[in-house]
Design brief:
Layout (H helix, E strand, L loop, with lengths): L9 E4 L6 H14 L5 E12 L11 E16 L3 E6 L7 E4 L14 H18 L9 E8 L9 H17 L6 H11 L10 H8 L5 E5 L4 E5 L5 E7 L11 H19 L10 H8 L3 H11 L5 E2 H8 L3 H7 L10 E2 L1 H22 L6 H17 L6 H12 L4 E5 L6 E7 L3 H11 L3 H4 L4 H4 E4 L6 E4 L1
Parallel strand pairs: 1-15, 4-6
Antiparallel strand pairs: 2-3, 2-15, 3-6, 4-5, 7-8, 9-13, 9-14, 10-11, 12-13
Helix pairs in contact: 2-3, 2-4, 3-4, 3-5, 4-5, 6-11, 8-11, 11-12
């Protein structure tokens, strides 16, 4: 499918868009497989400016795509085998049947190639459901080249899933899928790896436009342009603490705690709690403002952790019902849940996103107030949602002290990156100071500083190049 519309991922002729990195990827692919790829897909990472840990609760977020991306070169082969390699030799090659299923993905110990399989399976299942493909009758040669820093909160894993789905779609599909549909497919299929995200990473990867941040809402996925204030730049800085959210229960524990807060509030209000899983849906049912929802949390939920026994009594449910309606396989072992804190963060962060968007649309943007909202967001993720990291807190403090009007964690947290809003007039001195004071040789441990500390502007979304 080489034609595209604004609603569909774009396909470019490589001859008209020369790119040295793509040329290098094609050359390495040709050396590995003995011939050129048919296509190269590209999906960007992202930085979320504000709106952390609320997409999976049904609330809008405000990310932008970054220039760092994941590219995949691919072509069909006759072997009925998927052969996956990476230009970075530290990632070992992998082969499997083209008729692989989700049992090949070990969510308890995810490997880099499992993220490719997520995207591949997501498209394969859609094609099978729509009658476009019953079973794969050929294999695929794959080479991956990723430039999004891993475990940094910049969506490297989702960029790989999106790039995988896009290249698979390009090679196999006889049906049309819009960008929003592709984003939803990628959100759904990433759950094979064990994460229960809300769709922000996949949505911005497909829906991004150069020069704009995006206000993204869900159910269904949709986006609007957000123009960022002139005279300011956004700087990404990695605290150098890393965590793989798919390999721990921390992320999914927060999802479950929010879900339980929603269900416990619904039960006390006489609603059908079993069908409610998102705090945003609860707000819609109650027809209340975000401020009113914050008051309702104070009224209905106590601030001490809830034991599983207490939740079962409140919901009038047994453990089997709780497992079916609320928990996940990697959170079934939990015995205590912080419902009050998680709900307070979600509703207050959702309000901050709306305020950030509202202010961004005013003729004379109050940039200092935008910075304050970013700082308030970091305090909430640090103190209420408890998903920050001491090194990340130290880095955001340092950024604020040296010229950033706003600095906050971005991504899931527990390490990873901060995003800072810095006046253009001070950005060079800001970067020099942070480079000197934070990125010492001992802390970098051989890492390239340009890969962990850089300015960024809103980049374009996922696309395909025809070779």
């Amino acid at each position: 499918m080489d034609s595209s519309t604004p609603e569909m991922p774009q396909v470019f002729d490589l001859q008209s868009t020369p790119d040295p990195r793509i040329s290098s990827l094609i050359a390495q692919f040709s050396h590995q497989y003995g011939g050129q790829p048919s296509y190269v897909s590209r999906a960007p990472g992202r930085v979320n400016l504000i709106g952390e840990h609320i997409d999976y609760m049904g609330y809008g977020v405000l990310p932008m795509a970054i220039e760092q991306d994941v590219m995949i070169a691919a072509r069909k082969n006759d072997s009925l085998i998927i052969k996956i390699t990476n230009v970075d030799q530290k990632y070992k090659p992998y082969e499997c049947s083209a008729n692989v299923d989700s049992s090949f993905i070990d969510s308890s110990a995810p490997q880099w190639y499992h993220y490719f399989l997520c995207g591949y399976l997501g498209i394969l299942e859609v094609l099978q459901q729509r009658g476009g493909l019953q079973a794969a009758n050929f294999g695929i040669d794959i080479m991956v080249c990723g430039k999004v820093p891993p475990s940094a909160g910049l969506s490297s894993s989702s960029a790989l899933v999106c790039s995988s789905a896009l290249i698979t779609y390009q090679l196999l599909s006889q049906i049309s899928l819009t960008k929003a549909e592709m984003a939803q497919i990628c959100c759904d299929c990433e759950r094979y790896i064990g994460t229960q995200g809300g769709g922000m990473d996949q949505a911005i990867s497909f829906l991004a436009e150069k020069g704009y941040a995006k206000g993204i809402d869900f159910d269904p996925i949709r986006a609007c342009d957000v123009i960022l204030p002139k005279g300011y730049e956004f700087v990404i800085s990695h605290c150098l603490a890393e965590i793989n959210k798919a390999a721990t229960s921390d992320f999914n524990q927060r999802v479950v705690e929010c879900r339980l807060a929603c269900q416990c509030m619904a039960k006390q209000l006489g609603l059908q709690w079993k069908g409610l899983r998102k705090l945003g849906d609860l707000q819609v049912q109650l027809k209340k403002t975000l401020k009113e929802m914050l008051d309702l949390v104070d009224e209905l939920i106590h601030s001490n952790p809830y034991s599983k026994k207490e939740i079962l009594e409140l919901l009038e449910a047994d453990e089997e019902q709780l497992m079916t309606t609320s928990l996940s396989s990697n959170t079934s072992h939990l015995t205590h849940f912080k419902l009050y804190q998680r709900a307070k963060h979600v509703f207050s962060e959702a309000w901050r996103v709306e305020e950030f968007k509202r202010l961004s649309c005013t003729p004379e943007v109050d940039a200092n107030r935008l910075g304050e909202l970013m700082n308030e967001s970091h305090v909430s993720t640090r103190d209420i949602y408890e998903c920050s990291h001491p090194d990340l807190d130290m880095l955001t403090d340092l950024c604020r002290k040296n010229g950033a009007i706003g600095s906050r964690l971005t991504g899931a947290g527990w390490g990873g990156c901060a995003v800072s809003m810095v006046p253009q007039d001070f950005v060079n001195s800001f970067m020099q100071t942070i480079s000197t004071e934070f990125y010492t040789t001992e802390r970098l441990k051989g890492k390239d500083i340009d890969q962990v500390f850089f300015k960024t502007t809103p980049a374009s979304g996922a696309c395909v190049y025809k070779c």
